[in-house]
Amino acid sequence: MKEGLGVEERLFRKSDKPSEDYSCNWHYKKSPSYNEFASVVAPGKWCIFVSPAEVDEEWSKIRDAIENDQLMCAKVSTALRSMSRDGHVICVYTRDWADRRDLMRARDVLRSLGFVEELGYKRDIDTRSGKYGLDEWHLRA
Q1: N or C: which end of the chain has fewer CB within 10 A?
Q2: Which whole-number Å values give the CA distances from 116 to 52, 108, 141, in the listed order?
Q3: Which residue, 61, 104, 52, is CA-closest to 80?
Q4: Closest CA relative to residue 92, chosen from 52, 51, 62
Q5: In this structure, are residues 92 and 75 in contact, taking their beta carbons and an 8 Å threshold?
Q6: How do residues 78-104 score in pLDDT, each as one tens digit?
Q7: Contact, 78 vs 85, CB < 8 A?
Q8: Cα angle at 105 between 99 and 106, to 5 degrees?
Q9: pTM for the complete prediction?
Q10: What does each C-alpha distance from 83 to 76, 77, 137 come to in angstroms?
Q11: What is the Cα–Cα distance from 41 to 8, expressed in whole angstroms?
Q12: How far from the centroid of its chain's Cα atoms is residue 94's Cα?
């Protein structure tokens, strides 16, 4: 008879599924054309909040769009990061929060993937400065 996983094996388990990964806080994905050395002027991200039951399926939609060069890059919180929270967050990044056309292009891609509810867009400068609460969102769409 096969014994179950030990506490340490469960606690630090690595998985390709965000809902099951306890080895790190985030999973990351970059598009094939993403250039680490390209100018990222003023990054920001669309934030998608999902339940633990939905995170793997929703992340796979985002991951596929990134692999198809429809989106630049994204990250998703893992089970480890979400342990004391109600769910997961998927952050879909853009290069320049002042480029409204690119923000809306990325938002349109997300809508085409089924993310039709209103989402918040947050500038990285606001995240770094600890801006949360009512004034957290640069844009809602």
Answers
A1: N
A2: 19, 9, 9
A3: 52
A4: 62
A5: no
A6: 998 776 678 999 999 999 999 999 999
A7: no
A8: 95
A9: 0.87
A10: 14, 10, 24
A11: 42
A12: 12
